[in-house]
User: What shape does this take?
Amino acid sequence: MTDAAQVDLTNCDREPIHILGAIQPIGFLIALTADWLIARASANTHEFIGLAPDDLFGRPLSDVFTTKAVHDLRNRAAILRGPDAVERLFDCVLTDGRQAFDVALHFSGGQVVIEAEPASGEHGDASGTVRSMIARLDQAQDFASFYREGARQVRALIGFDRVMVYRFGADGSGEVVAEAVRAGIGKFMGLHYPATDIPAQARELYRRNLLRIIADVNATPVPIVPQRDETGQPLDLSLSVLRSVSPIHIEYLKNMGVDASLSISIIVDGKLWGLFACHHYSPRCPTFERRSVAELFAQMFSMRLESRERQDTVEYERRARDVSDQLLGAVASDETLLQDPDWLGDILTHAIPADGVGVWLSGKHAFSGATPSVEDFRRIVRALNGTAAGKVFATDSIASIVPGAGDFAADVAGMLAIPISRSPRDYVVLFRKELIHSVRWAGDPHKPVSYGPNGPRLSPRESFAEWKQLVEAHSQPFTASEVRVAETLRATLIEVVLRLADEASAERQQASARQELLIAELNHRVRNILGLIRGLIRQSNAEEQDVAEFVKVVDGRIHALARAHNQITDDHWGPAPLQALIDAEAAAFVDERERIVTQGEAVHLNPNAYSTMALVVHELVTNSNKYGSLSTPGGRVTLGWHRTSSGDLELEWREAGGPAVTPPTRKGFGTTIIHRSVPYDLGGTAKVDYAPTGVHAVFCIPARHLSEPRTITGAPTIKYPRAAIGHPQPTPDTLLKGQDILLVEDSLIIALDAEDIATRLGAATVTTAATVEGALDNIDAARPTVAMLDINLGDRNSYPIADRLAELNIPFIFATGYGEQANPPIEHRGRLIVQKPYTLENVARAMDSLLGPADEA
Assistant: This one.
């Protein structure tokens, strides 16, 4: 269908000269040495510039081309970047008294290769053309119309009889997913082509050289003279615009009845996604300029396609993470749910569509929906233990790893297995039913090829008549996004399954693993609490109060956190009622309970939101006691809440009957908590109005932090990393002089404390982020010079940020509260890790090791 069909390119240097060492006769080629002496030329140079190759060899290019042409070519050569770069010049007069040429320039094996075609004389607005084409493309509502519009735009530009969007499958086969075609010549839409039509070596050439043109399949190739250099090597024409093609491919096109072809690569995420495959049923050569515009459009098409695919993936994985949060929150309170296949199936299939679920746990099984028999399931588990190697494993054909699985393919044909133990043993397996469907091939893909007229080489297919194949014993394949989601679910399930007791001989080992996890979790929580208290003390001290007032303020804040902690630990660190939080604060500060009036339905907050709102409500109540409506006998506070149409919780605080209110003249720590905690820690919003009649505040808490009463469907357990507590020592305030710090920490209070430490060490700027997405956006907006990453960010980790920093060669350190339990992936093993809570000493020591001695200048 496209270039180099069934050609073995592994030994390219042994190919006949008309494959590697020849060009199409629509232009000419000159190869130059590093000092711009002519070393090779195509045999047809006399037709274009009046000089034969024998008259060119060894001569400086300046003796052949005009001074201006050589100047322009040298300038273009100077801006070539990368091994596969090609530069172009249009309407360039190479020799006096002769026509102008469109020129392509690239490097090949240390030589400069110049290719030229007679200039078309077109001087259109290329950027305007592509912009108009992309504008039409962006109006496509779905992928099918997006592909179709891309094919229409390319055909309108180059005028070929047929333009197809050809997509490669995971198995290397291709499918025509869109087509724009001249009426009356038949359609290829929906046809599949076997992987052998385009070998892997040819696909690599497509990835490097984005556009290939065959103007006339009957044209006689023009050889390059000499064929080989002094070392016996031919000129590598992989990036050549005029490169001739294999006779195997020419025969392939002739078998299809095609007289001219053009292909433009579609590259997505650095890989060959597919092609714009263009056929014409008579010789045709679009102008160099139009081909260049088509190539630019294809690059823009690829970028738009990649963006659309990523947007779909991000949205899907976001929904799947919500399912993972629900799974963790529910099983954390009732571990027996892991052995309930009906419940598991209902939860998991919201993220990954499936027809049935099988659970294999400690030698026991449980089924829900469409599943194999117990004996067949046991065979599947044995095969997984030898194949999956502890990783998520997906296949659309169980028969590919389990002999005889075709016998039960009518019930289940495909599966996605999620290991839920540290070693291959326990699994949750999602099953999909058999999907019998017909695939339309352009000829029989299984028909053996035969020897042909090209000597002892395989001949391409001669028949392209539609051939239908009935595919059985296969299910709908699992997508790459579904496999990534399964990896996330695996981490969630493993965290839970480690709490379960093993039976018989595995009981002692499981108990040890569970004890290890509990110790790490206890260490985690204790260190984070120490970090919070330390941050509260430091930030409260910044308000410059006297000792008695300072002790009172800190004591109140710590008690607010303690009350919140009691509420959320009553039910194994589960959701707690908002009303209980408000009642606790009211009882602590207000004698008459009716002075704080609450209005709203019963609602539960998940642990991280509960702790955050405890501090916010505490600061509102204490401020009102000092300065607001609760400071006078007749004052009153109304605190109401309701769920919005999107499921978020909107909470409103309104004071009345107190003294006249004026906006604060300085921004203390309490004010910072009220204004910034909900946006920073919870991703919500906070609006505070200091009206003369009383403070009016509105907070919006996203739905993911809420749970319905009597059900546990909220976010996962709060996870804050921990580390060792250091003893402050004198450190230079120039250690981070001139450095722009990126600090990633999901707790506002801890982030403020770490920000202060970085500032005291001399940092020029400190940018904080609480999420992976926020950190990546900050990196793109203003690249930092050094970074400190909290490993655990709620239910996620900071490794994607670490990957991006490593890619940009930006130094960074990790921070954690898990102590020795921290276990970064192998690509980040050996990185410096600061043990939390942050101290001036341990941060300075880590930064000094990372950056070297402080700048004493």
Summary: Residues 334-436+473-500 form a domain with the Beta-Lactamase fold (CATH 3.30.450.270). The mean pLDDT is 79. The chain is about 35% helix and 20% strand.
